[in-house]
Amino acid sequence: MIKYYLVRFSGEIVLKSERTRASFERRLVRNIVDMTRRKNVKNIKITRGQARLFIEGPEELEDILKRVFGIYSFSPIKHVIFEKLDDLAEKVEREFKDLVIGRTFAVRVKRAGKHQFTSMDAARIIGARLYKYSKGVDLKNPEVEVFVEIRDQNAYLYNRIIPGPGGLPIGVNGKAISLFSGGFDSPVASWFAWKRGVALDFVYFNLGGVDAVYRAMRVLKVLVENWCSGYSPKVHIVDFRPLVAQIMKKVKSPLKQVILRRFMYRAAQSIAEEVKASALVTGESLGQVSSQTLWNLTVEEEILKMPVLRPLIGFDKQEIMDLARKIGTYEESSKVREYCAIVRGRAATRARLEEVKKEEEKISPDLIIKVVNEREIYEVYKIKPVDFLPRENVVINFIPDEAILVDVRSRKEYNAWHPENAVYIEDIALDSIPKEKVIILYCESGEISFELAKDLREKGFRVYSFEGGIPQLKKRFCS
Ligand code: ATP
Ligand code: MG
Question: 0.85 exceeded by the pTM?
């Protein structure tokens, strides 16, 4: 069904100078159009009003308007043209009489233009019309609010005000590189940077772990598909494993983390310079983990020429988790694991710059240049996270959400117990499974499934054997 929406800008946009406001508004319109195209919502018509937009389109628009930064709120409206106040009151009555039946209500009128009546008059006359259907007027805590915005001979009627995300349209505040790990924090930090109008590209450092890139990309997809508007963000995947290995081997234990983070900053900065971004964004907050002390942050960013935006600096972990739920990244982030021994290890809380610099000399500066140069770059909209499962491994110890789980034991064992969604090998026609689909085989111990997986790999299937067989599976599915 085609509906008509009134869209209100964030207060900050309205307060800007004429020229800035016009450019922010254009950007906002562009971002809305971009998201509707991407979500395949068709037949949109946008008209500009004063400090507001009128958008005609199908109901699916609602979900989009909740997600475009720069929108303060919006309402599905009915537009009417009227002659006299009585005429308007009759039209409001017709529109809302069913809604107020058996409920308390209030009429809220806003008025602009020359009229024979005041806003109060209008509220009184309209209220009197609706009164007979209702349970009475309640101006403080009504069950239904009837809004009437009058502009000359036009009136906009609505009863719902739906909040948008607020903030500024993405793109009006330049561009930054977000250091994206996929944990709870960095997606929320990215969301806040977008909210202030900063366009982001992402950098992910692969520190190790078979499902690391896959998991992080799942989170990134959710974030970008839900909240990005106006451009197509890129993700730079940097293989940091050689660097991690060097740090593990050569650097003093308490300084490993600080040094790893200095290398992350260096790499991110050099990518930022290349793509003409002017800042970095991280999910760091103050004192959340022992490595995130003021002293360490100072030592870490000493190598930077550009600012680091840390939108979460004053948030508690609990607040960040709540935000992650609201943003929609919580569930995918909760599956991201820390593999890197450096990240897990104990860290100095007061690293000294001189000492850090000396330790760092043990690592060849060419290595960082090499890993940055060899990075992979993708458009986030185009990636499929399963494509980031390792091709070289036959054995994996987790089950990707997109995979088909196949039991290769005896039928009797399968019938006695199998994980939910697992299919029995003889019940599926392997040849009918598309070659891009991921298959996970399991058996009692993991040995038979391994041999079988190797054979099927040779036939071109994307197949893995589940490590540890039934005991591991039971742990996963029966806990
Ligand atoms: P998160 O919840 O975002 O993973 P964290 O609580 O694990 O953060 P740290 O490991 O100290 O905290 O990381 C702090 C910030 O450094 C992250 O929020 C992110 O911006 C960046 N970062 C950490 N690891 C990576 C990585 N592998 N790739 C890209 N950025 C990273
Ligand atoms: Mg993390």
Answer: yes
